[in-house]
Write a structure and sequence with these properties.
alpha+beta; 40% helix; five-stranded antiparallel β-sheet; 13 strands; globular; five-stranded mixed β-sheet
């Protein structure tokens, strides 16, 4: 059996690009948000919310995704701010996925603006991989009006890394024989799955590039980072253990609820979300696992769905910690539309281990883990309603 050919296709500045295309093509505007300092997210007058997406000119002012609107305005007072429209983004995402499905029967939507496409054996229909990638990229640009990056490799990890190379509107390869030249010189922070906390720990170990991580001693990494150390060592060497690796399971945990009425109150939505997180976290703990990826899904009253996900800094089963990530994702997604369904999911689970302490953490997660387990034991013995978190009674 020959090698796989995997494409990772990622929309460039998705929300902002989709806003720009919609405003030009459907609203008749002449200003292209992509060409001026602009962002999606929040309210300019109230200086409320966070940056969900930014233009390249906005990036030159030092504006970063996830920062408060007020801070972004300090950097660029003339910043153009537009509110998010997740229903609109869902439509553009669906059109994007439809084009991809015409090139392969095996399309895995990874998030609202990116997908993996298995192009193995498709050369006879669409030509060699790089030429085919350019065809797909150019077709999306010409038909839908926005640009994408395409990464090509033999597994999903390397394809995703490749698509993050120079942007926008580019095709990049990262085959195993190109790892040393193209990936190893990069800062370790640019490796998939390495967050700020993990990068800081690696720096204290004298590891600053992906190549240095790849050549590091596995036992030393395990000693300091447990299974996370083995995972990122594999990633640094181009090994995608997500395709059947022994240290993590594909199994995920999720819970969702269709609401009895359309929810428009943020405090009520967060309370429902906490209930979902609580149930998922309890199942994770019952299996002796911790999760490394979380996601939140919303279906609005118009049956438009949106999902956001993120990688957590440390694998966890702590309800409060998972809930904090869930709230952050919810805030990035929700634009005030009436909510019909909420979903919370946790994936990429690993065997439960002691949490690695960090100078950057101020929360006593070990204490919270013990409290969670005590509540689990009480519920197991006396029933699910035997103990409740005080936060359920709080109104934010």
């Amino acid at each position: 059996m020959g090698k796989q050919t995997i494409f990772h296709i990622d929309v460039n500045s998705a929300f902002l690009s989709w806003e720009a295309v919609w405003r030009i093509r459907e609203c008749g505007e002449t200003q292209d948000l992509r060409l001026v300092p602009s962002i999606v997210g929040g309210d300019r007058e109230q200086r409320h919310g966070i940056v969900l997406a930014k233009s390249t000119p906005a990036k030159k002012y030092g504006i970063v995704t996830g920062e408060p609107i007020a801070k972004a305005l300090q950097k660029c007072p003339d910043l153009v701010i537009v509110p998010s429209q997740h229903g609109l983004y869902g439509r553009y995402s669906a059109a994007f996925m439809k084009i991809l499905s015409e090139y392969s029967p095996d399309v895995e939507q990874y998030s609202i603006d990116e997908a993996f496409v298995n192009m193995t054996g498709m050369e006879g229909l669409f030509g060699e991989p790089v030429a085919c990638a350019h065809k797909i990229k150019d077709r999306i640009r010409d038909e839908l009006g926005f640009t994408v990056n395409v990464g090509i490799s033999t597994n999903r990890l390397l394809a995703k890394m490749a698509s993050d190379f120079q942007k926008p509107d580019r095709v990049h390869t990262l085959f195993p024989e190109e790892i040393e030249e193209k990936m190893w010189p990069l800062p370790v922070e640019e490796l998939f799955f390495v967050g700020k906390a993990t990068a800081a720990k690696l720096h204290t170990l004298g590891i600053h590039t992906i190549g240095e991580l790849a050549k590091s001693d596995r036992q030393m990494l395990y000693t300091h980072l447990k299974s996370m150390g083995e995972t990122i060592h594999n990633f640094a060497n181009g090994i995608d253990e997500g395709l059947g690796g022994k240290h993590h399971e594909a199994k995920g945990y999720s819970n969702e609820t269709t609401l009895g009425h359309d929810v428009t109150d943020e405090a009520e939505a967060r309370e429902i979300l906490l209930s979902l997180v609580e149930q998922v976290a309890g199942r994770i703990r019952a299996d002796g696992k911790k999760a490394e990826v979380v996601s939140v899904g919303i279906k609005d009253a118009y049956f438009v769905s949106a999902t956001h996900q993120c990688v957590v800094q440390n694998p966890t089963s702590v309800t409060k910690e998972l809930y904090e990530y869930a709230c952050r994702l919810f805030a990035e997604m929700w634009d005030g539309r009436p909510i019909r369904l909420l979903n919370f999911a946790a994936g990429r689970v690993s065997e439960e281990e002691s949490r690695q302490l960090s100078f950057f953490e101020t929360t006593d997660y070990e204490k919270q883990e013990k409290a969670d387990k005590a509540m689990d034991d009480i519920r197991k013995k006396f029933g699910a309603g035997a103990v409740k978190r005080a936060v359920f009674l709080e109104k934010k």
